[in-house]
Amino acid sequence: MAAVQGRGFAQSWWGQTWLKALEDTALDLQQLKAGRALARGGSVGAVSVRPGRVTSLVEDRGGAVYRADVLLQRLSEEEWDRFLGMAVERAGHIAALLDREMPPHLVEDAAAAGVELLPGIGDLEPRCGCDAWDHCAHTAALCYQLARLLDQDPFVLLLMRGRGERVLLDELQVRSVASASAGSVDEETDEGPVDADGVDATEAFAAGSILPPLPAAPPVPPEAAVVPSLDTETEPPAGTDVAALEFLGARAAAEARRMLTDALAPGHELRAPDDELTIDQDAVRLAAGAPEAWIGARLADGSGRDRGGLAAAVLAWEHGGTAALSVLEDEWTPDAETAARARTAVEAAWDAGERPPLRATRNRWTATGTGAQARLGRDGRWWPYRKNHDRWLPAGPAAHDPAAALSAAAGDE
């Protein structure tokens, strides 16, 4: 019968790799299949793990309960010495292990150092109360259950090989400090050339957990940097618009200061990164910098807007960035669920008899005869709009209910 792979049984790389090693080295695949069924059925009791041995009580299909043991040869002191030395030499491994993580490539690097962490052919010695001569369904079930333990804590494998987590981490800490001290002495006394090969980027990044903390962030400049003048004695290349470049440089400096201010604000790391602006959105951002009239005209033309449309877009941008700009230009029809929530919000926003007459058109609710409008954004917020001649203009930032939005649009707030 074909081998039954265990990728659906275990979830982590360690659990799956354990099962692959088990299945690749098994002599009786039929017993493995039976053991997997027992493990899936919850027939394996609490598992005891200690150096060189795992033990559990396993109930078979007939209801009989047997003690099952699986023995795995412990690493020798020489092998542990090679393993610990290898881990300390690689910044990524020492950092991960001290942070209670087991990187998958630890297995390959340990093997390169002559230390096999995963079992090979004949490494797993089964012992069961059913007196089977090799793996039986009970010991196979125990091995499958062990894969689940490895899902939760890969350090179980190192415990089976002879080192508990606390002892292992203490030894790594001692070796790490000794290695760092020796490195400092070498740097101070060695006058020869420095090895500039460096380390793998993954290891360098992982080493961050054992490096000193970064210095404090610099304060935000009180104002954006002044862009150097491009008006020099050297003639610019043909077709270069120097004034436009100076404007773009000034806006880039202002945007850099804004981004730095946001990045240093509390909770910034919890916010999702902003989407990249489209060309039309970026034109509005630039126009919000109060450019000269000729630059504003070029931005309006380049973004497909007239001057009034660009002015309205700038108003929206100042009230809420891309979200507000989308509400200005995107008229959409809410689906049934969104429309029902919107109607509920409208009905709950006013006390009985106080709600003004409203006319709903797609995502826009207009207070009849007042020139005030509330627009529902796709994010569920309500945006106030006020009619100015023949154009609806943004009247403020978003509100969480239509009454507040209409009140802002009417100028009551």
Give a verbal description of the structure.
The protein is an alpha+beta fold and 413 residues long. Helices cover 46% and strands 11% of the residues. It has helices at residues 13-25, 29-40, 77-89, 91-98, 106-112, 137-152, 155-160, 165-189, 201-206, 242-264, 279-287, 293-302, 307-329, 336-348, 402-409, and strands spanning 48-50, 53-59, 65-72, 124-128, 358-361, 364-367, 372-376, 382-388, 391-394. The strands form two sheets. It has a five-stranded antiparallel sheet. The chain has a four-stranded antiparallel sheet with strand order 1-2-3-4. Strand 1 (48-50) and strand 2 (53-59) form a beta hairpin.
